[in-house]
Amino acid sequence: MKILIIGCGLLGMKLYENLRKEKYDVYGTFYEHPIENDHCFRLDITKIPDVNHLINKISSDIIVHTSAVTNVDECERDRKKASSVNVQGTRNVAYAGGKIGATVVYISTDYVFDGEQGFYKEAE
Predict the structure, then answer these.
(1) pLDDT of residue 71
(2) pTM of the shown model
(3) Which residue spans within 1-124 are E strands per DSSP?
């Protein structure tokens, strides 16, 4: 099974390392902090051609999307960047993953959805 982790920050890198230990064929992406590894690639998820190219090239069975602007204050200060990465970037990953038939897993922060209420609606 081939797995692609989009966004090897704190969460993504831990997932990447644990899956590699379990002998999965794992690939990862980074944006700001290069990872010296032949299985990790720089990716700007806001650039549709780059997302399509990498996802097609790796052709993984599963894509775990963990990339995001997570600093809440930064998101408030730069709403355009937050929307570009967190909304458009996520859409790009989901669309490209769907085109190759991959299962796309999206991991969100508990800052918005803490799991206490459950059965959330997008409008809430």
Answers:
(1) 87
(2) 0.85
(3) 2-6, 25-30, 40-42, 62-65, 103-106
